Amino acid sequence: MDALILAAGDGTRMGSSRPKILLTINGITLLEHHINALNALGIKNIYIVTGYKHQDIERFIKEKGYRNVFTVYNPDWKKGNAYSVIAGEKFLKRPFLLVMGDHYYQLSPLRPLVRIRADFMMVVDSNPRYVDVDEATKVRFEKGRVVEIGKGLKEFDAVDTGIFLLSPSIFPFIKNSIKDGAETWNDVKRLWIAKNPLPVYDINGALWYDVDTPEDFENLKRIIKEREIIKARDGIISKTLNRRISSWLSQHLVKTQITPNQITLISFVIALASAVFFGLGRRWSSIMGGLLIQISSIVDGCDGEIARLKGLSSAYGAWLDSVLDRWADAAVITGMAWGTYHQFGWIIWPLAMIALAGSLSVSYTETRYEALFRKPLNRSKEIPAKRDVRLFLFMLGGIFNLIPHAFLIVSTLSFAEVLRRLLLSTVEE
Fold this sequence. Notes:
Blueprint: E1 2-7, E2 24-25, E3 28-29, H1 30-40, E4 46-50, H2 54-64, E5 69-73, H3 82-87, E6 96-100, E7 103-105, E8 120-125, E9 138-142, E10 145-150, E11 158-166, H4 170-179, H5 185-195, E12 200-202, E13 208-210, H6 214-229, H7 236-253, H8 260-280, H9 283-310, H10 315-344, H11 348-373, H12 387-399, H13 403-428
Parallel strand pairs: 1-4, 1-6, 4-5, 8-12
Antiparallel strand pairs: 2-3, 6-11, 7-13, 8-11, 9-10, 9-11
Helix pairs in contact: 4-5, 7-9, 8-9, 8-10, 9-10, 9-12, 10-11, 11-13, 12-13
C-alpha cells in the first residue's frame, strides 16, 4: 500500500511564509510526523503533492534523505484540492491512503485500516474530543450509509478526519467529477455518496487535529504535551518528578535521529551499570548505583515519549521495553543483594527474592489481566507500587545504606497492590 499526502495549499489562515506541512511541533515537523506514522503502518511509497513553495518541501525531503518519499508538483494547486488528488494518479497503481498534510493524528487506531480493501472508505470520528466540531466537516448516516457531508450540517453522526482509503479505480470518477465542476475533495465525496455506498472506519475519539490557524497550532502543541508525553497510568514518582525531567529531555531528543528503541537500550545499559556499582559493595558505589537506577528510570520514560511524538509507537517497541525492564529489575536487585551480603549476611537474599517476586508480580498481573479481560485494571485506591516508585525506593536504599529496608518496603507495597487487584477482580466477576 502507498500513501498520498496533500500539501499544496498556501495556508493563508496560518499567516506563515512556510508550507503548513513544514511547521514544527515539539521539535518535529508535520511532514516528519506523517512519514514516521505511515512508515510504521507499513506504507511502501509516500507521495507528497506540493504546490505553494514546493521547493521548500523538496529541499527538506532531500536533506533528510528519505528513500521512499517523493514529491509530486501540482501546477493547478491554486484550484480545488481535487486536482491535487489527481496529480498522484500516474504514481499510484495499488491501494493507497489519502491524508491531508495539515492534519495531525494518532497512529495506533489506524493499524487495522491498512488491511482493509475498498475503492473509497472514509475515516470518521464519532466521538470528536479534540477538534473544533464547528469547523469540521460533518457526516450523517442513514441505515449505516453516508448520506450527507458538509460543515453546515446541524444533525450529524461523526466528523470527517481527513484520512481516506482508496484504490486507483477512484481516479476516473474524480476526473469526471472535475468535469462536472466538482473541484474540491468535499465536492467529489458528495458526488460519490449520491451514486455509491461510502463505508466508514471509525476511530471513535482518538487523537487527530486539523491545523488551520495559529490558535490551532498552539492548541495542538498543548494537546500533544498532555496526551502524548504525560501518561494517565504514570505512578506518583513519574507524575511529580520523572516526567518533569524526561519530557524536557524528549523535547531535545525528538530533534535528533535517535529512535525510541535506542533509548530503551540506553536505559537498560544504565540500569546494568547501576547493578554493577551496587554489586561492588562499597559505600560510594552504592550511592552511585542508587543515582544511576533513578537516572535509568527517568530515561525509561523518554522512549515512549519519543515514540508518540514522532509517530513511531509500535507493538515491538512496547514489548522490548517491557522485557528489558524486567531484566533490569532482576539485575539491579541481584546487584544490591550481592553488594550488601557481607554487611547484612544471608538474610539479604530472601529479602531480595521477595522484592523481585513482588516487582514482577505487579507488572505481570496488570498485563495478563488486560490481555485476558480486555479492559483496564480497576485503579481505585491503587497502592503506589509501580516501577517508578520501586526504583525510587532502591535509589533511596542505596544512597542512605538502607537496602534491606528498601527491599521490605517494595515487597510490602507490591504484594499489597497485587492482593488489592485480586480482591477487586473477584468482586467484579
